[in-house]
Structures are given as structure tokens and as C-alpha cells.
Design a protein that fits this description.
This protein has 314 residues and is mostly beta strands. It contains 3 helices and 15 strands. The protein has 2 domains: 126 residues, no CATH class; 101 residues, Thrombin, subunit H (Beta Barrel).
Length: 314
């Protein structure tokens, strides 16, 4: 993605004398907007917000490395144990697949670590070779004074599928008890992209940094970037996104019912107050991909039937 910032433009202008004209306003003056439409009338209430908060969860990523001490002079290598590096993001619970949770998040949480090395003393270096990536759904997450994370209520998640181009991924939990399942709510209702408008109010939920679950509010500021067609899969929003929000849901309301309008994806280094989320059309195609030719063998993807009833619609 090419991000360009226009810093300054030199403009020479000629001052033209102007006369202010005040138009007459009377009963016959036409109205060019629909006075019955209010983009902010989203009917968000306490019960709905509490429900949506329980759909959004904290995801911790752990990359495990094998470490070796390498003598650059002799070429000798000594295994020194395993080490871990951690990252974090957010996800939304799509459904309870049997006794398991299916979570939708961003694919870039599955970061592929490279071979690393760290100079030690003399001719030696410590090498780090990545051997596995693990995902956890956690209740509480924080780092101690050494930077090592501590989390409570960790549930191991397994990788189901991903798509790097749309930056989407599904993770699945182990089997949970009914008591554990009752802690989580599900939502798989995705907005129709054609009905999303600039100015629609957006609620963003996620886990920025070590601040726990946070809700921010903004609007759909843009439906795309006409200057960069590669941004076609992105909606622009003004609700704040920070590190740790990645993969968390963004909601819009249509007639009082919440829909997923995107997943938090990126922030722009040179632009303040505008952020990028994955468009709903990409989410729909990822969850229910187009049918393949019948002669092409493939494993059936997980299907997500729309929820038939919502507690806030009663």
C-alpha cells in the first residue's frame, strides 16, 4: 500500500471582489435532503452493548524458538533451550460450533517469525529458529516488569483457515463445558456493503495494548481510496484503533440491529484519526466462498448460518 502525504502546495491567487448575497427563505424553498433519515439513530442500549462486548475476545499469539549458541570462528553450535515471543490482538466469536468457539480475526496475527540472531561476546551469537506458533483466548492479559506476559483463563485455539489477501483467519477452541460456553456471545451477521454509507456511526471493540477490553466510537469516514485501487478491501473509520485492536469487530446499526461492518486492520503512520478496517464483502466471501467446479475436489469449508434471533430484537 502506497501511502502519500501532501505536505504543501504553493498556490498563487488573485483577489476578486465579491458581494455576499443572502437568499430568500420561504415556505416554497425546496428541501434537498431526506429529513426522516438520521444516521445517528442506532438505538444502542445497555443490553445490546453488553451482548456485543461478550462477542469480542482477547487473543494472544506465542511464537516458540529453538535457541543455539553459535561460535562464528569454529562453526560449533550448542542447543541452549527454547524461548518464546508474544503478540496480541482481538477477535469476534462467530458461533459455537458444537461445544467449540469459532473466532474470526485478522490473518496478520499469524505472524511468521524469521530466523534471528543476537550477538553475544567474542565470536559467539545466539540464534533463534522459529518452530511453532500458538494461539490462546485469554480472560486477562498483562505483562510483568520483564516484559513477559501473564494471562489468566487461557484456552488453546487451533488454526482453521486463513486468507492473506483479505487478511482474515478463523481460529477454533477446544471443546468447552456449557458453563464455559455461557461466558461468550456470538454474532455472525455481516453488513451488506451496498447499504453502508459515509457518516454511519461505528462502534469498535478490542483490546488495545494492556488496557483490557475497550469500546471506541466513530464514523465511516470513507468507503475507499480513489487514489489507490489497492485499498479496495478497506473501509476508513474514525474510531480509534491501536496495537492490540487488530482482528476486533466494528459494528454499525441498521434499524436498531447491529452488524459486523469490518475487522480492525491498520493505522496509518502519516495520517492521524483515520484507520482501516476489512470490508464486509471480503468477510462474507471468506466465510462462505463461491462454489467451485464440481469436478474439482476440495474439503468443505465451515459454513456459518445467520443467527435467526437476537436478544435485542425481542
Amino acid at each position: 500500500m502506497n501511502l502519500k502525504k501532501l505536505l504543501a502546495v504553493g498556490i498563487t491567487s488573485t483577489t476578486i471582489a465579491s458581494v455576499a448575497v443572502t437568499p430568500e427563505i420561504n415556505a416554497e424553498t425546496p428541501v434537498y435532503y431526506n429529513t426522516s433519515y438520521d444516521v445517528n439513530d442506532n438505538n444502542l442500549n445497555k443490553e445490546t452493548l453488553e451482548y456485543l462486548l461478550k462477542t469480542t475476545q482477547d487473543i494472544v499469539v506465542e511464537v516458540v524458538f529453538e535457541t543455539h549458541m553459535l561460535d562464528l570462528k569454529t562453526g560449533e553450535r550448542f542447543f541452549t533451550g527454547n524461548a518464546s515471543a508474544y503478540g496480541g490482538g482481538s477477535g469476534v466469536v462467530l458461533n459455537k460450533n458444537g461445544n467449540r468457539l469459532d473466532l474470526l480475526t485478522c490473518e496478520h496475527l499469524n505472524f511468521q517469525a524469521d530466523f534471528l540472531y543476537e550477538p553475544q561476546w567474542g565470536n559467539t551469537v545466539m540464534t533463534y529458529n522459529p518452530i511453532s506458533t500458538k494461539f490462546y483466548l485469554v480472560d486477562k492479559y498483562k505483562t510483568d516488569f520483564s516484559g513477559k506476559p501473564k494471562f489468566e483463563g487461557a484456552i488453546t485455539l487451533e488454526f482453521v483457515k486463513s486468507d492473506a489477501q483479505s487478511d482474515l483467519m478463523i481460529l477454533r477452541s477446544k471443546e468447552l463445558s456449557q458453563e464455559e460456553l455461557s461466558k461468550y456471545n456470538t454474532i455472525d451477521r455481516v453488513a451488506n456493503e451496498s447499504e453502508v454509507m459515509q457518516g454511519d456511526v461505528v462502534y469498535t471493540i478490542g483490546y488495545p495494548m494492556d488496557l483490557g477490553k475497550q469500546v471506541t466510537q466513530g464514523i465511516i469516514s470513507g468507503l475507499g481510496n480513489p487514489n489507490d485501487p489497492s485499498d479496495d478491501g478497506i473501509f476508513y473509520v474514525t474510531s480509534a484503533l491501536n496495537f492490540g485492536n487488530s482482528g476486533g469487530p466494528n459494528f454499525v446499526f441498521k434499524q436498531g440491529v447491529p452488524y459486523i461492518v469490518g475487522l480492525s486492520r491498520l493505522k496509518f503512520g502519516a495520517v492521524n484519526g483515520i484507520y482501516g478496517i476489512v470490508k464486509p464483502s471480503l468477510i462474507k466471501n471468506f466465510l462462505t466462498p463461491p462454489e467451485q467446479p464440481k469436478n474439482q475436489a476440495q474439503s468443505p469449508p465451515p459454513q456459518y448460518a445467520p443467527e435467526k434471533e437476537f436478544p435485542w430484537s425481542k
